[in-house]
Amino acid sequence: MVRSATGRRLHRIAIYGLFAVVALYTLFPFYWMIASSLKSGQAIFDVTFLPDLKFNNYEAILSDGVFLRSLLNSLVVAASVVALSLGLAIAAAYALGRIDFRGRSPIMFLFLAVSMFPQIALLSGLFEMIRWLGLYNTLGSLIFAYMIFTLPFNIWVLTTFMRSLPRQIEEAAIMDGCSPLRIVRCIFLPMMGPALISTGLLAFIASWNEFLFALTFILTDENRTVPVAIALISGSSRYEFPYGAIMAASTIVTVPLIVMALLFQKYIVSGLTAGAVKG
């Protein structure tokens, strides 16, 4: 009995110790980013875990019109990608999940295969398409490019979720004279809330953080998004690297995403779990 109680105590200590190590590993970079954003000059190289609350870097970043414009551009691009990808994914998910036709499985695997291509492999082809469409150096080029990696994932998750919904509800709606559009809008969309929130949030984060396409397809400061704007922050001279300003800008960009993820984590887990194991 004593040995069993001691074993349980050691097991609990090991669990808490492992949790502490994981928490330290994941949270310390964010803490150090915030702490560094409060330093300036040579103080950035001093190892102080509780720095003075000096917001000079935040004032400099928020007074920069180019950075604020980049924030707005990122918001417009990410919101547009979420709206378009979810709208198209819902229509595709209804067709692939509720309508019986030959070739559904190959189409699903094709969507999955497309999402597996690395961005660098698609860069040259996308560049030519964007130039041909006249979208170069516009926010439309980023919206068009980001749909390539957000739309296949959204279609895959929403189709699997759509297949898990009971057919009796759809059949009853058809008997009442509902059209397919009304069935999707009035019946399926409310039931797909967790899946829509999870896929929409992940698409927003992916579009908000994307760097390679934004660096390649945008030429001027007026159309740049936040990741590229942060990479191009410069110091007062060629010999100064503005660590503090970069950390402040990164904090401004990252904290809203963390808050959104924490607020919607319940829907993310339920939506992705349902889409992954049902069907």
Automatic annotation (TrEMBL):
It is a multi-pass membrane protein. It comes from Shinella granuli. Keywords: Cell membrane, Membrane, Transmembrane, Transmembrane helix, Transport. It is found in: Cell membrane. Its main location: membrane. PROSITE patterns: ABC_TM1 (PS50928). The chain crosses the membrane at residues 13-34, 75-96, 108-127, 139-162, 183-206, 241-264. GO terms for biological process: transmembrane transport. Residues 71-264 form the ABC transmembrane type-1 domain. GO terms for cellular component: plasma membrane. This is Trehalose/maltose transport system permease protein. Belongs to the binding-protein-dependent transport system permease family. Pfam families: BPD_transp_1 (PF00528). The keyword Transmembrane helix applies. InterPro entries: BP-dep_ABC_trans_perm, MetI-like, MetI-like_sf.
